[in-house]
Amino acid sequence: ELSFIHRFEPALTPDLPPLLLLHGTGGDENDLISLGKMISPGAALLSPRGKVLENGMPRFFRRLAEGVFDEADVKARANELADFIAEAREAYGLQAPVGVGFSNGANIAAALLMLRPEALAGAVLLRAMVPLSEPPKADLAGKGVLMLSGSMDPIIPAENSERLAEFLSESGASVKHTVLPVGHGLSQQDLSLTQNWFLNR
Ligand code: MLT
């Protein structure tokens, strides 16, 4: 019995890295399955449901207000999620996954990179912000990160997503950060840029 409710779709193309799909607030383990199939067709998909409930809506960590995080909970939940990834890799025979997160799911993926870098081979962060104000030094050498932000995102100030991109690249990750002329929701461009990033990875 693994420690998160989740969906797992085995690989159809075994050499591709598995995707760890991390939904936004109010989503669940089903939300990003079709996105995962489109962005890296044939890859194994591991999709946990966030354990924190906010008015019944699943999330991956507690927040005090929109964009204001309970950082102790961010740390505890990132560690719990990293432990689940290790369990699932063992149970399903997987290499380290690429995290693909949207909104709250992108924020916990960024926290995983900072706190448990061994958990992810790389990440796609869709509408991410800085999850920890004083992150420890991490060694992200060899990890590719695609960050897609929205210039009209009402939740995430441009300065904040830029600060996250800088932190990740200063930690050694190969970061590609693109700011799209969109809001917090995903667009067709998110899909095509993510597909291209996987093809060229
Ligand atoms: C968060 O709480 O992680 C961010 O505010 C994004 C969201 O979930 O709306």
Number of continuous helical runs: 5
**General shape:** globular
CATH superfamily name? Answer: Alpha/Beta hydrolase fold, catalytic domain
Percent range for helical residues?
25-40%
What's the total count of β strands?
11
How many structurally independent domains?
Answer: 1
Order of helices and strands: EEHEEEEEHEHEEHEH
Describe the structure.
There is one protein chain. The protein is α/β, with parallel strands linked by helices and 201 residues long. Helices cover 33% and strands 23% of the residues. The chain contains five helices and eleven strands. It has helices at residues 33-39, 71-92, 104-115, 158-170, 188-199, and strands at 6-9, 19-22, 45-48, 52-54, 57-59, 63-65, 68-69, 98-102, 122-126, 144-150, 174-180. D-malate binds next to helix 3.
Provide the descriptors you would attach to this structure in a database record.
201 residues, alpha/beta, Rossmann fold, two-stranded antiparallel sheet, 11 strands, 33% helix, binds D-malate
Write the layout of secondary structure elements.
Blueprint: E1 6-9, E2 19-22, H1 33-39, E3 45-48, E4 52-54, E5 57-59, E6 63-65, E7 68-69, H2 71-92, E8 98-102, H3 104-115, E9 122-126, E10 144-150, H4 158-170, E11 174-180, H5 188-199
Parallel strand pairs: 2-3, 2-8, 8-9, 9-10, 10-11
Antiparallel strand pairs: 1-3, 4-5, 6-7
D-malate binds at residues 24-25, 63, 66-67, 103-104, 107, 155.
